[in-house]
Design goal:
heterodimer, A: mainly alpha, 81% helix, elongated, B: alpha/beta, Rossmann fold, Alpha-Beta Plaits, 4-stranded antiparallel beta sheet
Chain lengths: 272, 331
């Protein structure tokens, strides 16, 4: 049987509907925006302002407790720059992998479980949208905001960090080539990994709350594994960072493909 | 058309060997109590569920192998209407159109036309959240008709509606049935609407088909002859009842406050009864045939089914009793 092409009009219809509905819910939108603003803009701004306000915050003791590969380049900097570079240049890196997932996990958990709760799933399943396209649409509903938060958040982070740190640093110190690899290549891979699992869980649970609980338990170890290595990712060579991203992509796409293959109307409607 | 269509669920049989056929342009009522298998039948016919055994053909397509193609030509109103409360009425229709790969000026004017037809123009740009159940059902019907489907599946279209909204929705469905030879499968446990709309009925009970056909044909199988109400202007005298019973072809008489209900073998017997009553100085104000309604047929089938269902107590010995006749219930 020939492989049918994705119906992008139908996919856009589902994604557009879901995102429009989300935009109308303040209780969803406010936490979605507040967390990234706090962690990606306010926190680096506070660090930068602290560094500007003091002659130099001693980070020597902190640097002795982190890997030498990370400590050495920072110790070679002037004392006033050390705090900014350590925190904003390296330690905040995991946030750019975790925050998009935190933001979009709600949407992924809602993908099918929310349709069941709102009693809208059955009418959707009676429409001609292909099961594969429906799964892809639900994944994109969570993935697109995750990537948007990651990329826009990073742009805002870079502007705020460089602007506030300018009097201390007198140069732009983010983004570096490795930061770009992490944001453009690794972050979407981690989002795909986590959200594809979450959407699959959502298809098997009755409520968004269940999906959140169960999905969180499944993806958290994977995410911690990925983000635990993210600061180290900023210390490796660019090709190595790209290779690490490729491995995460491979795992994520296998999971996504598996989700698409196992996703059937029959399994879903039997729970309605 | 279905042949031996069967679907099991972990909790038991959803549908057991259903074999029915529906002609194009026909309205089929799927009747039965909750859990009878009506919704399962709709899901199987529209390719949303896959059967464990048996097969179905809808619009010449196999719902299992050509489900997407089939669903492009069918429209469904589910029991809960399935509208997104967070969108406006118009947005719900636009969303449904996009999911069907329909867009452009033609579909926009179709949406306007349907909103107008279903009395939703004033509510078109308000969130569905505040809409009444009747408005939701009307909007659900509009959505089901967006692509002018050849087959319409309506699952409990009047559940939760007040009498006025029920009448409105039934009238709408009636008008849909007469359009373009559209086939309608109406799954319901409300017999009034089925009686008004259905050409044929399929009675399901715990997943099994227990009766299928035109209400008149099923009635003929269930009851011998026909009933007729004779309005005598008051309670009948014993002489009047005797006069009616004396006519050949009268099977049964039931007196009531305004006269007698007679059961006769053929319609022409009624004329003989009227003549006999008049001959006995009894005024006959009216003679009104009472063909059994779909409701009568359904309850009779259900009652007989209940008596046929084996119980845990041992059956009585002796010859089997004839099937009991249940008094009709009229509304």
């Amino acid at each position: 049987m020939s492989r049918q092409r994705t119906d992008w009009v139908a996919v856009r219809g589902v994604v557009g509907k879901d995102l429009r509905a989300v935009r109308r819910s303040k209780s969803v939108v406010i936490p979605m925006l507040a967390v990234p603003v706090l962690l990606m803009i306010v926190l680096p701004a506070v660090i930068g302002l602290s560094a500007r306000a003091t002659e130099g915050v001693g980070v020597d003791r902190l640097l002795t407790s982190i890997p030498g590969d990370l400590a050495e380049p920072i110790l070679s900097l002037p004392e006033r720059e050390q705090l900014i570079v350590l925190v904003n240049g390296y330690l905040l890196a995991p946030l750019f992998l975790i925050v998009p997932l935190m933001v979009s996990a709600v949407l992924a958990a809602d993908a099918f479980a929310g349709e069941k709760e709102r009693k809208t799933l059955e009418s959707l399943l009676h429409s001609p949208i292909r099961a594969r396209d429906l799964f892809v649409a639900k994944f994109l509903t969570a993935f697109l905001p995750a990537v948007a938060v990651s990329w826009l958040g990073f742009v805002a982070f870079a502007i705020v960090t460089n602007t506030i740190a300018w009097p201390v640093m007198h140069r732009m110190f983010v983004p570096t080539k490795l930061w770009m690899v992490m944001i453009l290549w690794v972050a979407p891979a981690v989002a795909t990994l986590g959200l594809s699992v979450m959407v699959r869980v959502s298809a098997r649970t009755s409520t968004s709350q269940e999906a959140n609980q169960l999905g969180g338990a499944v993806i958290l170890p994977l995410i911690f594994l990925a983000v635990g290595q993210s600061t180290g990712l900023l210390l490796v060579d660019t090709p190595v960072a790209i290779a690490i991203g490729a491995v995460i992509w491979a795992v994520a796409l296998v999971l996504l493909r598996g989700g698409v293959k196992r996703f059937t109307r029959d399994a879903l409607v039997a729970q309605v | 058309m279905t042949t031996g269509l069967t679907r099991q669920f972990p909790g038991g049989v959803g549908l057991d060997s259903l074999s029915i056929d529906v002609a194009p342009g026909e309205v089929l009522a799927l009747l039965g109590p909750n859990g009878a298998g009506k919704t399962t039948t709709v899901r199987l016919l529209n390719g949303v569920l896959a059967p464990d055994a048996g097969s179905a053909t809808v619009l010449g397509l196999d719902p299992v192998t050509a489900g997407d193609e089939l669903r492009a030509r069918t429209g469904v109103l589910t029991e809960h209407a399935g509208l997104d409360d967070r969108l406006t009425a118009r947005e719900n229709l636009r969303y449904a159109a996009m999911v069907r790969n329909l867009r452009g000026p033609a579909i926009e004017s179709r949406i306007e036309e349907l909103l107008h037809r279903f009395g939703m123009t004033e509510r078109a740009d308000r969130l569905v959240r505040g809409a009444s159940t009747g408005q939701r059902k009307r909007l659900g019907l509009a959505r089901a008709l967006l692509h002018d489907p050849d087959v319409l599946f309506l699952d409990e279209p009047t559940s939760g509606l007040d009498p006025t909204a029920t009448r409105d929705v039934v009238e709408l469905i009636g008008s849909l049935a007469s359009e373009h030879g559209r086939t309608i499968v109406l799954a319901t446990h409300f017999l009034g609407e089925a009686g008004r709309l259905a050409d044929r009925m399929a009675v399901l009970d715990r997943g099994s088909l227990i009766a299928f056909g035109r209400p008149d044909d099923l009635a003929a199988e269930l009851w011998d002859g026909m009933e007729c109400d004779l309005d005598l202007g008051g309670s009948p005298s014993a002489a009047a009842i005797d006069a009616a019973n004396a006519v050949s072809g009268v099977r049964d008489t039931t007196p009531h406050a305004r006269g007698i209900t007679i059961r006769v073998s053929t319609p022409d017997v009624v004329a003989g009864v009227v003549r006999s009553l008049v001959a006995h100085q009894v005024d006959v104000h009216a003679a009104v045939p009472r063909p059994p309604t779909l409701e009568d047929v359904y309850f009779e089938i259900e009652a007989r089914r209940a008596l046929e269902t084996p119980t845990t107590t041992p059956p009585p010995t002796g010859p089997p009793a004839p099937p009991p006749m249940r008094k009709r219930v009229r509304t």
